[in-house]
Write a structure and sequence with these properties.
globular, rRNA-binding, ribonucleoprotein, single chain, Rossmann fold, Ribulose 1,5 Bisphosphate Carboxylase/Oxygenase, Ribosomal_uL1_CS
């Protein structure tokens, strides 16, 4: 571990469960890299991801944004092209856009597609799939409401998905955000994850919650604080 990391680690009580705003303030304080670090929340869920009915996946619009400029491309045709362009999509197209991607162009963060364009996008599965860029109706990136989809993504919509270890990782903003703004994003993210609880998941759902900066140590949050926050 670097001296910088150890110095940050020394500020964190590894045995303490912090209040939410206290943890977020500490995450900001331990973000000491020479770039704007992302403040992230990690949640360990009490689910069995080997069961199809216990998959937790979706998307949430963070009210204070992510602090990141997101490049969105859209596969659309007809009147939906103008909708996507007016909403701020960087590139809108069809077969020619698919060919550009097949030739190696990947300078974008999110792909949106109208349902009638999925036959074109489907061919890009081997390229987009491994990078987590394949449009999916479950997270609102396969839709005819392209204008709203692009606006939501630009405003701070992020996808979440429990991994094989039942963990979800979500950005809350940058280390230059105010604690109150990070808190608002945290609240929205946790409320969304709690609402996504599978009906078949038994016992405790939120097992462990921690926040951290990109290069900083994890700071554990008291689960009771989450219960008090959500109500």
């Amino acid at each position: 571990m670097s001296k910088r990391y150890n110095k940050s680690l020394a500020k964190v009580d590894r045995h303490k469960l912090y209040e939410i705003k206290e943890a977020l303030e500490l995450a900001k304080e331990t973000a000491t890299a020479n770039f704007d670090e992302t403040i992230e929340v990690s949640v360990k869920l009490g689910i069995d991801t080997t069961k199809n009915d216990q998959q937790v996946r979706g998307a949430v619009v963070l009210p204070k944004g992510t602090g990141k400029e997101v490049k969105v491309i859209v596969f659309a045709q007809g009147e939906k092209v103008k909708e996507a362009e007016s909403a701020g999509a960087e590139v809108v197209g069809g077969e020619e856009l698919a060919e550009r991607i097949q030739e190696g162009w990947l300078d974008f963060d999110v792909v949106v597609a109208t349902p009638d364009m999925m036959s074109v996008v489907g061919k890009l599965g081997p390229i987009l799939g491994p990078k987590g860029l394949m449009p999916n109706p479950k997270v609102g990136t396969v839709t005819f409401e392209v204008e709203q989809a692009v606006k939501d993504i630009k405003a701070g919509k992020v996808e979440y998905r429990a991994d094989k270890g039942s963990n979800i990782h979500l950005p809350l903003g940058k280390d230059n955000f105010d604690v109150e703004d990070l808190y608002e994003n945290f609240r929205t993210a946790l409320e969304t994850i709690v609402k996504a609880r599978p009906a078949t998941a038994k016992g405790r759902y939120l097992l462990n919650i921690a926040v951290s900066s990109t290069m900083g140590p994890g700071i554990k949050i008291d689960p009771q604080a989450i219960i008090n926050m959500i109500g």
